[in-house]
Amino acid sequence: MFVAPVRTHSRIVGALMMREIMTRYGREGLGFLWLVAEPLVFCLGVLVMWSFLKPPYEHGIRLGPFVMTGYMCLLMLRHLMASLMSALQANSGLLYHSRVSILHIYISRILLEVSGASVAFMIVYAILIMLGQVSLPHDYGLFVGGWLLMAWLGSGLALIFSGLAIRSELFERLTSFLTYALIPISGAFAMASFFPEAYRDTYLLIPFPHATEMIRGAVFGEFVPTYYDAAYAFFCGAVLNFLGLVLIATARDHLEVE
Known about the structure:
The protein has 258 residues and is an all-alpha fold. The protein is built from 11 helices and 2 strands. It has a two-stranded antiparallel sheet with strand order 1-2. It starts with a helix and ends in a 9-residue tail after the last helix.
């Protein structure tokens, strides 16, 4: 009963993903590998730069895995924001096809960005293991759960930004500036344990650091204190995604289909 609709939607999303890869990266050359290469190059670049500017350890934590876990989370957030911001405008002509919906377009881009960031994360992780900078995760479930939670939160926020940008040209112009706000609220370059206890709970009202803390808890193990509430962050993600879906559900009314 449910198998046929699932297969139909899966084929549509798969076709849109392939179309996006061809449109963005072309039919020749590295193709999908560029989706992985972009975050990979950025993360390795930051690691190299910080290795010259920072000591090997800060707050008793090794620099390599600290930068890796934080920057890859931030990079996935920023890529989701950038990709979903123009998703509907760039593919408005596809809406003439009766089987293609607005949700298909957004899901295809979310899956592409999360997949690319995930593969890049695994490659960076493997490189740091070979360099002796980090060991395998102490808790694989916590590691994967934190990464998927960050994708869940990032998708919700990106959907909201995209829905607002369609309605307001001013908001669309401000988006590049607003994405810089993700740096302090993502937990990329700070851990909850860095904050005085009196301010820690206030900081953890922001949902994004919970996902980053989960990943770091999995990588660093029990000897590095981490603070997170997965249920709270998941609930915040559900609210963000619900609001985002409401905004994009009526986006067609504010869009000129070419």
